[in-house]
Design brief:
Blueprint: H1 2-24, H2 32-35, H3 42-76, E1 81-82, E2 90-91, H4 95-104, H5 107-126, H6 131-146, H7 149-166, H8 171-186, H9 188-198, H10 201-225, H11 244-251, H12 254-257, H13 265-273, H14 281-304, H15 310-313, H16 317-322, H17 325-356, H18 374-380, H19 383-394, H20 404-422, H21 426-453, H22 463-490, H23 492-502, H24 509-532, H25 534-538, H26 547-554
Antiparallel strand pairs: 1-2
Helix pairs in contact: 3-17, 3-24, 5-6, 7-10, 8-10, 14-17, 17-22, 19-20, 20-21, 21-22, 22-23, 22-24
């Protein structure tokens, strides 16, 4: 009885590993149903593009006018700050952007970045075998030059406790530890009575923000320690890399410590174990141009926040209730675009430092207009978080290989964890539930269509007509992404307001125009996929390092 059971478990594990590799092997996966649609007539594509230019220009311009009308009041009551003197306007922001910008612009922090880059390159040249020890030293120096000693003590204590949990080698204890951490930082009563008396308000923000990021690293490290076969080994000494020293370097790794992105321990460790290669001038130039790309978007975000006050107007439902359809649509679009461009910069700069160290950090998010499905939104926006959920929740619970019930249970567990990790407020519950519903609906429709229509479509239905039909369905799902994500970004009140004006308006022209807008975006995106290939766009091969080798794989 024991032998068949063992073989069954091995087969399940092999299937799970195969599914995980399949879900993450983005450079070799081919989606023929979406890459090779027939081309549409040129005039039709021009019409779609023209409609989008008109629609974009109208809604963004109208919302910027609304922001201008409210600028004086927002300045008066302190919702926005004084902006660049050359523009003579107020400047808006939100917590994440302010938190990140306030630290980046500090001379001490900028000096730390420059010192780290120079120090790391010198170590690679002169003492490459001591690279990790030097990185650990740099981590300690960064902590003491950036944060209050109470914050440092708390993070170190949390790291020690995490290592003790990892020694149990029990996944149940690991998840109980993770959930208890989330409860501590998400329940207001506990935060007010435990954290506030110990830390000042500014330090509470640091502790809460850093702990949320480090928690996923702790879970990744401890879960890998539960299976000794998965623990990486040092290429030089052959020792298991599951010591407190390994956890410390992984958790406090300088480029990814401040604001992410999430990088699962096995992949991070595999990159750190690779031999240090000499960097030629071409690679330095490529890093320079990619960094310039992120810097350009950062300045664009800073500039745009002088004209679009969507973060502050999100706290003014009265104004947006009175706003027109075009102004509300412009507000929603500014929120979504800002969210993507913000994380392009926030995740982009750490990626440059990681690439210099030889660590392939998860890529920043795709443009929101390149993700017209719930599945793509989760896979390509926060790639590190998606990989974490797939590796530690979805696949261990069975994934798509264990039947519909276990697949849905795994999917619900993933969304529940993300919701609870972000704070488990009402608007987050709505956001997680609608995303799960949208993803499930997409999956069901795709399965039913393939089962019922495969090989049965009449020959007289052209490829262009098939593409239009697919774009109609994709456009409807794309439209559903907007109110769902607006709940996440702006809360219950504003999310409901946007949903009513965009989808449930008394004027039937408004939801029809909204659908036309996203239908046209879908068609243009399919045209890009038709010309360049879906993988080329999803992997952002058009400007990342190694794009030539990746492009060669495409052909």
């Amino acid at each position: 009885m024991g032998k068949p059971l063992t073989e069954s478990k091995q087969r399940m594990k092999q299937n799970s590993e195969a599914e995980f590799k399949k879900s993450n092997n983005e450079t070799t996966k081919v989606d023929k149903t979406e890459e090779f649609y027939a081309a549409l007539p040129t005039l039709e594509i021009i019409f779609y593009a023209g409609f989008l230019v008109w629609a974009y220009g109208t809604i963004i311009y109208r919302f910027c006018l609304l922001s201008y009308k409210r600028e004086a009041d927002l300045l008066k009551y302190g919702y926005i700050d004084e902006g660049w003197s050359i523009l003579n306007k107020g400047q808006d922001s939100d917590f994440e952007w302010s938190y990140w910008r306030a630290r980046v612009i500090k001379p001490l922090f900028m000096g730390s970045l420059v010192a780290y880059v120079i120090f790391s390159r010198a170590v690679e040249i002169f003492i490459p075998k001591q690279r990790e020890m030097c990185i650990a030293t740099a981590c300690i120096a960064f902590l003491f030059t950036t944060y209050d000693w109470k914050v440092i003590a708390f993070m170190l204590l949390q790291t020690v406790f995490t290592f003790m949990i990892s020694r149990t080698r029990r996944k149940t204890i690991v998840w109980l530890f993770a959930v208890s951490q989330m409860v501590l930082f998400n329940v207001e009563y506990l935060e007010e009575n435990i954290l506030d008396p110990i830390f000042e308000h500014k330090n509470v923000e640091d502790v809460t923000f850093l702990s949320a990021l480090c928690l996923l690293k702790f879970v990744s490290f401890t879960l890998e320690c539960c299976d000794m076969k998965n623990i990486p080994t040092c290429p030089d000494t052959g020792r298991k890399q599951d010591t407190f020293y390994d956890l410390f370097v992984y958790n406090f790794y300088f480029p990814q410590f401040l604001i992410g992105p999430i990088h699962v321990y096995p992949k991070w460790r595999a990159d750190m174990n690779k031999p240090v290669n000499a960097w030629d001038s071409q690679k330095y130039w490529q890093c320079f141009w990619e960094g310039l790309h992120y810097l350009g978007w950062m300045f664009f975000v800073e500039f745009a926040l002088h004209y679009s006050y969507h973060p502050s107007l999100g706290y003014d439902p009265i104004t947006l209730k009175r706003a027109s359809f075009a102004e509300t649509a412009g507000y929603a679009m500014c929120c979504l675009l800002y969210f993507q461009m913000k994380y392009l910069s926030i995740y982009g700069f750490p990626r440059i430092l990681c690439l210099l160290d030889g660590v392939d950090s998860p890529k920043p998010p795709m443009c929101i207009h390149a993700m017209y499905t719930f599945k793509d939104m989760w896979r390509y926006f926060d790639r590190g978080l998606h990989e974490f959920l797939m590796r530690y929740i979805y696949i261990p619970m069975g994934g798509s290989k264990a039947g519909i019930l276990r697949q849905q249970a795994a999917s619900i567990s993933c969304f529940s964890l993300v919701c609870f990790w972000h704070g488990s407020k009402n608007h987050l519950i709505i956001w997680a539930a609608t995303n799960w519903l949208g993803l499930t609906l997409e999956t069901i429709v795709e399965v039913v269509v393939k089962a019922t229509l495969s090989g049965r479509i009449p020959s007289w239905v052209s490829g262009a007509m098939k593409r239009r039909c697919i774009a109609i369905f994709r456009g409807v799902m794309y439209l559903g992404l907007v109110p769902s994500n607006m709940y996440f970004l702006t809360g219950t009140t504003m999310g409901t307001l946007v949903a009513k004006k965009v989808l449930l308006s008394d004027n039937p022209l408004h939801p029809f125009l909204s659908f036309c807008f996203f239908y046209c975006i879908t068609q243009l995106l399919l045209e890009v996929y038709h010309s360049w290939g879906r993988r080329h766009i999803c992997n952002k091969n058009y400007y990342y390092l190694g794009r030539e080798s990746q492009r060669a794989k495409l052909h």
